[in-house]
Design brief:
Length: 80
C-alpha cells in the first residue's frame, strides 16, 4: 500500500461486472482470482439482485461451494 492510497481488493473483469450490473442474473459463479476470498474475507458477494459465489482458493485444499438454487442464503463453502 502506498501511503494515503487505499487498496481496492475487488479485482476482476470490468466487462463481467458491467454485464452483471446491466442484466442482473440470479446467480453468478466465479473462481479465477484464487486469493480473493483470503484477501477480502468473503467468498460471496451481492451486486444488485445478483448473488455471486467465488469457489476459488489459493491453498492446497479444494474449495467447494454447495448451494440450493431455491435457498441461496444457505450456501456454504468448504475446503476439502
Amino acid at each position: 500500500m502506498f501511503e494515503g492510497v487505499p487498496i481496492d481488493l475487488h479485482v476482476g473483469s470490468i466487462a463481467v461486472r458491467r454485464f452483471i450490473e446491466s442484466r442482473q442474473p440470479y446467480l453468478t459463479l466465479h473462481g479465477h482470482i484464487h486469493e480473493s476470498a483470503r484477501l477480502t474475507g468473503s467468498w460471496r458477494d451481492k451486486l444488485g439482485r445478483t448473488e455471486m459465489f467465488n469457489a476459488s482458493h489459493d491453498g492446497k485444499e479444494l474449495a467447494l461451494v454447495e448451494f440450493d438454487l431455491d435457498i441461496l442464503e444457505s450456501a456454504e463453502r468448504r475446503l476439502i
